[in-house]
Amino acid sequence: MARGKLIIFSAPSGTGKSTIISWLMKEHSELNLTFSISCTSRAPRGTEQNGVEYFFLTEEEFRERIGRNEFVEYEEVYAGRFYGTLKSQVEKQLEQGQNVVFDVDVKGGMNIKSHYGGQAMSIFIQPPSIAELRQRLESRGTDAPEVIDQRIARAEFELSFAGKFDQIVINDDLAKAQQDTLALIRHFVETE
Prior knowledge:
- Helices cover 43% and strands 23% of the residues.
- The chain contains seven helices and nine strands.
- The radius of gyration is 17 Å and the shape is globular.
């Protein structure tokens, strides 16, 4: 069995990244895409199960694993609330021939790419413009104006890193962005 590869997605909120990833995983099973299973120090929500959605660790366990350099990337999102990806879990999935998908922030994406080099392809999903992104976020109707302002400020920061990614897909037309992303991934996973 051929060893899998890593596909890293980063994008500002509202660019359609999750929609593109969901479409790829649902409609293109031949690519053998699977999500990396991350760790978190938060408690399970609803029907979440350990080892399925996340590996649930205590804050102390998470800090011990950081100390042992077991994560390829991690972040303390809020005080005491960690999220991260274990090197051992990624290795296990790659050895099983899975092409491991990461949906991470730009910093995490660059850390994973730096660690895995040519085994990984990083893709930045970019909105056509900040104005269009603001319109998308407003049309969702899920966020207060100040939250949208925070997301736009974050997006402007994240866009400054786009050039550090292997590929940039501009999502001004969802069907085209899906096809562009599919072509990039298909080429990457089928190339030795």
